[in-house]
Amino acid sequence: MRLLITSDTHLPVRRPTRRVLPDPVWEALDAADVVVHAGDWMDPELLDAFEERSARLVACWGNNDGEALRARLPETAIAEIGGVRLAVTHEAGAATGRERRCDARFGPDGDTPVDVLVFGHSHIPWDSTTPGGVRLLNPGSPTERRREPACTYMTAEIRDGALAAVQRHDLPPGGAGRS
Question: Residue 17: is its pLDDT beyond 60?
Answer without folding.
Answer: no
